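Q: My collaborator sent me two sequences in one message, no labels, and asked for predicted structures for both. Can we handle them in order? The first one she listed is below.
A: Yes, handling them in the order given. First sequence, followed by its C-alpha cells:
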Amino acid sequence: MTLQEFFIQHRKVALGFSGGVDSSYLLFAAIQNNADILPYYVKTPFQPAFELKDARRLAGELKCGLKVLTLNNLTDVNITKNGADRCYHCKKRIFAAIKNQAAAEGYKVLIDGCQASDDAGDRQGMRATGELEVRSPLRECGISKADVRKLSRDAGLFTWDKPAYACLATRIKTSVPITVELLEKIERSEDFMFSLGYKDFRVRTDGIAARLQVTEEQMSSVFTDREKIYMELRKYFTDVTLDLACRG
C-alpha cells in the first residue's frame, strides 16, 4: 500500500499530531492527497512549550486547522508513580481524548505518525494505540524514519532534520514519582542547553541529580561550556554529571 492509496480509502481522518518529524510529514502527505484531515495536538505537562509552537508553525505553513486539547495526565496515579508501564497509560489517555473529540466532530478514523522503524515489541504506546484501533499509515506503507526525513526535506518541511524528542517524563528514572516541579526543572535545563546551540541531547534525572547526555559530535562543546552548564543546571539539581556513553 502507498500513502496515496491509504488516503483514497480513508478520505476523512483525524491525526494525533505532535509537531515532530513523522506526524508532520503525514499531515503534509494527507493534504497533498486531498484528504480531509484534522490534526489534534494534546497539551500536557509532559510536552515542552516549543513542541506546541512547532505544531502551530507547521499547521500554519500547510494552511490547515489545528485542534489543541488540554489534558492533565498528572491526575492519573498510574502515570505519576512512573512505573514500567507509564507510557502505556499516558498514551492511552492521550489518544482516547483525541478519539472521543474527533468522533464528536465527525472524524471516525484516527491515525498517528508511527513509522516502519519503530519497534512494536519495545513500545508500550503502540499497545495503547492498537487497543484504540489507531491506524499508522507510515508503518503500514513501510516508510522508515530515514524515508520520512528525506521525503520531508524534499517537501521543504522545516521539521525534516528535527531531532527526535521524547516527552519530558522519559528523562525521569523509572519509579521516581513525576511532579510538575520536576518536569519544570528538566524543561528549564533543556531550554538552557538549546540556548547554547545544542540540539540532540537529554537532561536525565533520578529526581535529585542531573545526568547530561549529548551526541559524540557535541561532546567537545560540552567541555568548553562546562562551567556555565554546571552553574545553570545546579540551580535545579544537587549535582550535574556528563554521561560518557554518547547518544546515538
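Q: And the one she listed second?
A: Here it is, processed independently of the first:
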Amino acid sequence: MKQSLCAITSNMEISSGVHLMRIKTPDIAATAQPGQFITVRCEELILRRPFSIHQVVIESEAEQSGIALLFEVVGKGTLWLSQRQTGDEIDVLGPLGNSFGIESGSRNLLLVAGGIGIAPLVFLAQQASSQHHVTLMQGASTAARLYPILPLPDEVRFVSVTEDGSVGKKGMVTDVLPDFLDWADQIYACGPVDMYKAISLIADSRQLTAKKCQVSLELRMGCGIGGCYGCTINTKGGLKQVCRDGPVFELDEIIWEEVRI
C-alpha cells in the first residue's frame, strides 16, 4: 500500500455519466490483484472515495505503467473526479483490500456483473483468460448502460443481458445465470445487493456452495484501511470490515438480510 500523487493520462466519458480514467501509478500496477481497490482524495471532501481497479496497464518502461478506473458519476466525489483533465494529479492510496481467488482445479470461470459492477471483473477476466475459460456476463437496464466495446481478450466470452431486451438476452442477469451453472467451476459477482440476494437464493436452491461463489461488495467507506469501522457488515463469522477483510467475500459467508448499501 502506497499513497502518492498520480498523473491522469486520460479521462473519457465512454457512456452517459460513466468515465474510464487511466492513471500513471507504476507501484500499484506492479502489485495489484483483481478485486483490490484504491481510494482517491476528491477535492476538499473529508472522506476519500473507493474505486475498484478496473485494469492494469503494464508498459515497457515500468515508470509509465498504471491502472484504469471505471466509475459512474453519482455524487460530489465522482463528479469532481470526472472533471479532471489529462496531466492533472490526484492523491491515490492503494492497492487495498483482498482479491478474488481461483481454486487450483478450476477451469471454467463465470463472472457476473450488474451494471457498473463490471469494473473489477474486467481485470479478473484479463488476468485469468490465459489459463482458464472465462465467461463474463453483464446485466443492465438498456443497451446504453452496457459495457462498451473495449479491449477484452479474445478468449473471453461476453454475454449481455438487458431488462428491455434492446441487446442480448431479455431480463435480469440473474435470470440467465442458471443456464451457466453446470458449466462453471467458480462464480464471481459484483453488483447491487439485490443481485447478490438473488444469486444467494439460486445457490441455495441448486446447492452450489461447492462452487465457491465470491462477491465484491461496493460499500461506502470512511478511512478505507480498517481504522474507523464505518464499513462493518455482519457475517456468519462475526462482524467484518469491507475495506480490511474484503471487499471480496464468499457469497454464503454474508448475512444478506442485514446488509444495507
